[in-house]
UniProtKB/TrEMBL annotation:
<keyword id="KW-0862">Zinc</keyword>
<feature type="binding site">
    <location>
        <position position="192"/>
    </location>
    <ligand>
        <name>Zn(2+)</name>
    </ligand>
</feature>
<dbReference type="GO" id="GO:0006284">
    <property type="term" value="P:base-excision repair"/>
</dbReference>
<feature type="binding site">
    <location>
        <position position="19"/>
    </location>
    <ligand>
        <name>Zn(2+)</name>
    </ligand>
</feature>
<protein>
    <submittedName>
        <fullName>DNA-3-methyladenine glycosylase I</fullName>
    </submittedName>
</protein>
<dbReference type="GO" id="GO:0008725">
    <property type="term" value="F:DNA-3-methyladenine glycosylase activity"/>
</dbReference>
<feature type="binding site">
    <location>
        <position position="196"/>
    </location>
    <ligand>
        <name>Zn(2+)</name>
    </ligand>
</feature>
<dbReference type="GO" id="GO:0046872">
    <property type="term" value="F:metal ion binding"/>
</dbReference>
<dbReference type="InterPro" id="IPR005019">
    <property type="entry name" value="Adenine_glyco"/>
</dbReference>
<dbReference type="Pfam" id="PF03352">
    <property type="entry name" value="Adenine_glyco"/>
</dbReference>
<dbReference type="InterPro" id="IPR011257">
    <property type="entry name" value="DNA_glycosylase"/>
</dbReference>
<feature type="binding site">
    <location>
        <position position="32"/>
    </location>
    <ligand>
        <name>Zn(2+)</name>
    </ligand>
</feature>
<keyword id="KW-0479">Metal-binding</keyword>
<dbReference type="InterPro" id="IPR052891">
    <property type="entry name" value="DNA-3mA_glycosylase"/>
</dbReference>
């Protein structure tokens, strides 16, 4: 087993140690360094993140990341008020769009979830207020991040709770693994691996972050 497989860490070309999964690919490393785990409250960005995590199901995140601008163009910048009005002609357009993942179930799910997002905003005032209610409490998070445990079971009790609640509200493609990836991406948890140069920065950002609840 390689050191990266044991620790989850690799050394970048700049000499800094980071999470292994960006593989020192420039666009992937930039996403890791500048976006992943940063706390998010913007509703459109939250909707984009949870939809793209749904599209990622069964694929690599790198595939989705490299198509993200195409997804943004195809789905009206993930403005869920606009996406909720998509009709069958839009579905046909999206199924013909080679720049995105042409999966009928995931496309119709995104349109459905946009309508559910509108309902959520009406009830809670914003998507951010809803989602941040599910942030794990300190006693639900390990004192030391356990990379190997998470690698074997990429869900948590908090992601299971959020997944169940979203499904009750009519959302789709929001299983607990997908939801946990969303929680990681939006900064609800800090899963930069111990020893990653980003971990302390994210801890600081999360400490300074004003929760929208």
């Amino acid at each position: 087993m390689t050191d990266a497989a044991k620790t989850g860490l690799i050394e970048g070309e700049d000499g800094r140690t980071g999470c292994f999964w960006h593989g020192n690919l420039e666009d992937y490393r930039r996403y890791h360094d500048e976006e992943w785990g940063h706390p998010v409250t913007d509703d459109r960005r939250l909707f984009e993140k949870i939809c793209l995590e749904g599209f990622q199901s069964g694929l690599s995140w790198l595939t989705i990341l490299r198509k993200r601008e195409n997804f943004r163009a195809a789905f009206a910048g993930f403005d869920f008020e606009k996406v909720a009005r998509f009709d069958e002609r839009d579905v046909e357009r999206l199924l013909a769009d080679k720049g995105i993942v042409r999966h009928g179930g995931k496309i119709t799910s995104t349109i459905n979830n946009a309508a559910r997002a509108l309902e959520m905003k009406a009830e809670f005032g914003s998507l951010a207020r809803y989602f941040w209610r599910f942030e794990p409490t300190p006693d639900e998070r390990p004192a030391v991040f356990d990379y190997q445990t998470l690698r074997a079971n990429p869900t948590t009790p908090a992601s299971v709770r959020l997944s169940r609640d979203l499904k009750k509200r009519g959302w789709s493609f929001v299983g607990p693994t997908t939801v946990y990836a969303f929680m990681q991406a939006m900064g609800m948890v800090n899963d930069h691996i111990e020893g990653c140069h980003c971990r302390a920065k994210i801890e600081r950002l999360r400490a300074e972050f004003v929760r929208p609840v």
